[in-house]
Amino acid sequence: MLSDNGTPPHPVPINAMQARDRVRSLIEASGITDDGGAGGDTLTDALLVTSELVTNAIRHGGGIVDFSASVSPAGLLLAITDANSDHPVTLPRPPGTVGAGGFGWPLVRRLTRSVAIKPTPQGGKRIEVVMPLDVADRPTDLPDLH
Predict the structure, then answer these.
(1) Nearest residue to 129 (alpha-carbon basis) of 139, 114, 143
(2) CA dihedral defined by 83, 85, 88, 94, rounded to 10 degrees?
(3) 88 — phi, psi (to 5°)?
(4) What would the pLDDT profile of 9-21 be if each residue is shown by its tens digit?
(5) What is the pLDDT of residues 84-140, one digit of tens each?
(6) Second label for 11, Cα 20 to 30 Å away, from 54, 78, 98, 117?
């Protein structure tokens, strides 16, 4: 859908900062955050998930093809499309070791209620996540990350 001047109503962000700014504005406009309360943790987690998904699309997916964010009764809905069909993976680490990278995808899986990865007709993938915004509805246990 194009705006009156023929441009997309929300251009695709070119970096994580632009995506985070859009998500921050969306959540703040929804009235979910507050001054230092649990809503602040919700915003922080939403920005972290946004950052990880967008950074992965740029770093591993050949760039962001499409981006959308919305709030619904289910929570924050994020969808990021990139040009690479490869799914994110979590690499096993021997206990007590720390390697460079590899922490983002487990964080996304931990902080979201659902994750769906769908192929696109152009050969890429679309990652759709639902993140609970009601503090009482936040995940408390660690899901299977494999």
Answers:
(1) 114
(2) -120
(3) -65, 150
(4) 678 999 999 999 9
(5) 999 988 777 677 776 666 678 889 999 999 999 999 999 999 999 999 886 555 455
(6) 117
